[in-house]
Amino acid sequence: MRLVRNLTGLLGFLLIWEAVVRAGLIDQNDLPPPTVVFARIGELLGDVEFVRDVIASVLAWLIALLISIAIAVPAGLLLGSIRWLRDATKAIVEFLRPIPSVALIPLVLIVVGGGPEAKITLAVYAAVWPILFNTIYALAEIDPLLLETARTYGTPRARVLTSVALPHAAPFVFTGIRLSAAISLILVISTEFLAGAKLGIGQFVLEASSGPGRMDLVLAGTVVAGVLGYLVNEGLERLGHRLFRWSSAVEGAAA
């Protein structure tokens, strides 16, 4: 039912867009109608070079997300369970977190160069925070009695984290991962566009926007990026419902 409502809203938007352009209220060179844009997408999906651009962006996104998880989950478990460590790092975390990732593009280009490493680095930087803070928040919500019971039986701290804390935090961590998945995709494509890249959807849009009268290609690349983002979010949301039906954390994030 939700899918039907979403598709109905999207169809209505596309019909309005088509009607406005066909009526001459907007120049087709400035804003091509959706029929033209989707026809161009069909052509691009048969273009090997464009498919390579899509694959390059998706691979960079996946690598960045996996690195973010590998960094943020252990760090969140440590900061969430060791109070003095959380207090000692609070200032630096609160200093780094508000810095926009795109503002770091010049620094990253100098340090790691302009290859795929640049967009992956910036995507990791942006994607770490939702996972980290969701993990810390989840540990703060654990019933202290569970932890005390585990310690009473002589369970080592590392075992408490993996067998008690992590299962409780898993729904919150997954919600952070879902948020970070969208953020990292945005940063990958934005970096490709702003910093330039040999391959990627952002690089394709940049090249298309530099040519006269190619707004149809610009919008086609943008729509493909939007579809990827929707599929990633929808897929992770459905996976979250399957894995954590019992948790209100996933339900709240979906709402």
TrEMBL record:
Gene3D superfamilies: MetI-like. The chain crosses the membrane at residues 54-79, 91-114, 120-140, 160-189, 217-236. GO terms for cellular component: plasma membrane. The keyword Transmembrane helix applies. Keywords: Cell membrane, Membrane, Transmembrane, Transmembrane helix, Transport. It is a multi-pass membrane protein. Pfam families: BPD_transp_1. PANTHER family: ABC TRANSPORTER PERMEASE PROTEIN MJ0413-RELATED, ALKANE SULFONATE ABC TRANSPORTER-RELATED, MEMBRANE SUBUNIT. This is ABC transporter permease. It comes from Amycolatopsis echigonensis.
